[in-house]
Amino acid sequence: MASVNRTCRIFILLLGLLHFSKSFITPRISFFLGSPGRLQSHYISSEARNTTVLLLSPDASTLFVGARNAVLSLDVSKPDVITQKSKYDWAPKDLTRCGTAEKKNCANFIRVLQFINSTHLYACGSFAFKPADIILTVDNLSVSREAQRAKGLCPYKGSERNTALFVDGELYTATTNDFAGADPVISRYFSNGRADLSLEKLSTTLSDPTFISSTYIPSERKVLFFFREEGAEYKFMERFTVSRVAQVCRDDNGGTLTLQKRWTTFAKSQLICQTEKQLPLNLLQDIVMVPPGDDESPDNTLFYGIFTSQWPLTSSQSAVCVFTLSDIKTAFTGNYKSFTNQWTDEPNTDGNLGNCKLNSESDTILNLVKKTFLTASHVYSVGKNQLLTSREEYSRITAQRVKAANGHKYSVLYLLTESGFLHKAVLLKNRTHIIEEIQVFKPPQTLKSIIVSVTKGVVFIGFSEGVVRVPVANCSYYPSCAECVLARDPFCGWDPQDKVCVLVSNMKPNLHQDVDNGNVSEQCDSFEKENSPRLQNEVHLNQLVMLPCHSRSRLAKVSWRFSNHSIVPMSLYLQNKDGSLVVNVTPSTAMEFHCVTEEQGFQQTAVIFSLKLCLYQKSHYNGLVAVSILLAICICVIAVGAVLWWRKHQNKADLQCQPFQHIVT
Ligand SMILES: *[C@@H]1O[C@H](CO)[C@@H](O)[C@H](O)[C@H]1NC(C)=O
Ligand SMILES: *[C@@H]1O[C@H](CO)[C@@H](O)[C@H](O)[C@H]1NC(C)=O
Ligand SMILES: *[C@@H]1O[C@H](CO)[C@@H](O)[C@H](O)[C@H]1NC(C)=O
Ligand SMILES: *[C@@H]1O[C@H](CO)[C@@H](O)[C@H](O)[C@H]1NC(C)=O
Ligand SMILES: *[C@@H]1O[C@H](CO)[C@@H](O)[C@H](O)[C@H]1NC(C)=O
User: Is 0.90 topped by the overall pTM?
Assistant: First the structure.
């Protein structure tokens, strides 16, 4: 048995190595914290500390924030500032339940914040390891129903993941039910004129789960829960974690004798985000539902999930996969596995298993249902493919559909990395393009949340210090038609009249855009050749000079050309990883060098350097770098001049000051 285990591990290790050869997608442009190209508004306040949950009002003008010891409502209707509207302070007074080890987090972390209806909000918090809930008014966060104990509705620990949602005034919730976080439950509370329900407890119904999210599917009248847990059906190695989707039906009233006050419709299936020859990325981190288009079947409801791996070799990588509702439905209507002392196959010939109408079934059927809740087949990602693999560890995801200039709809994903960046990715036919990455906070952050407002065109991110708002795009960052088209951002198009890159939603006709191919020569026919910057450099014999070349795009390929456009041979020159060219100055190399960038088949000259051999021995100074550094050179000239003069008088060796000539040894 042990040797089988070992073989298995070695096999998995080898698969992991194969996985390393995968190509990761690089974001096209990177914006760091405070970059003027991608301004953000922050709401950093001691009152919004440890932001756990975000909830947006239907008109997207108010953001409700669940934080440490408080529920806040923020006015987010103005584009440049975020202000506080109201606040409900909700701190526990009795801190005796917190042991010394837990003193730091002995507070009320809000873990559920949901609309009950248009006028009332429900909040549930860890309340210093003694969960409590409350009902507040939407207008001014005044108390509508006093706080009560809420064991089983939200977790005892502030940082523990849980999920909950209201459907027609009834609360569906998945959390742990005890101080240790060892007793997981999926339940329905506030049931309208019928029994509250919870899960029948067996060792295999839930096995040390981490709850991720939940969503209501109106067409199916089902609530889906997403989580990960120990895969009890896998015997081949200890602690193999699997990701799951589970269902319960809204019309479930529990059984009459068997399964009284218990779900009769609970079923779970495994979600798989893995390509062939690859170590499974088995840990679901977050998943978001994107409803189908207006004219599409509800079966086309999509779920975008992010996955990481439980194995150290691949632990800092992640993948994005998409699942369809129709594949989830197929798994739940198919065959099952039954558990008594071991797993046995249970064909679903009568179609009873996973069925929503079991409430009044016979005890025989309910007894079968009680031990049969794991589907035999798995739910694979669409095409058994991954949409994106990244060297970054993704932790949260949200998504939207965007109508591009040609009327075609694209899915845009917003992915939050553990390192504090927001990746904005667009899904193209057969591939994914990361348009940009924007730094939004400094790691590490244990609490994170993300939400997109499609109507307002902004993404909100909650973290330990507060809330940050990032517009979905900044088209004016792209100064030319070529840059605008190369961005391949479905939000941005080039307006040829006004010569600006604008938001497509501004409804201007005839915007130039090519999200799929970024074909500049096709879109920018009136492309005016911009004059490339030309820099003159005085150089001297045998000097090694470095010519820098920067492209805003990390996807652009940099090459160097002579003035006759033939390629600079790398046998005689050296091109650094950052694209810069190293030239050893001789009479035959003192000439023009053109830096050409190429992206999506479009070439442009980024900069031209003209090296002029300087015959005077003393003119060692050249303006290789930008004009702003000239001042520094002047200071250097004076200083070195003084030293040289002094040295000459001392009959010592010659000394040179070349702070801007990078000497390569
Ligand atoms: C958009 O980019 C332009 C050009 O870089 C910059 O001036 C402006 O501040 C940016 N706006 C936002 C909202 O990021
Ligand atoms: C709460 O926020 C503070 C910083 O404001 C951070 O040090 C602490 O770790 C956070 N607590 C949790 C549970 O994330
Ligand atoms: C909304 O929910 C609150 C709290 O349950 C209740 O008091 C109120 O009557 C409800 N309002 C409507 C319009 O249903
Ligand atoms: C282009 O110029 C370089 C440098 O002067 C020279 O070595 C090369 O032969 C030229 N190529 C052509 C095709 O004229
Ligand atoms: C761009 O479009 C032109 C004209 O349709 C086509 O000839 C060219 O191959 C395209 N370039 C790329 C890189 O797709």
Answer: no
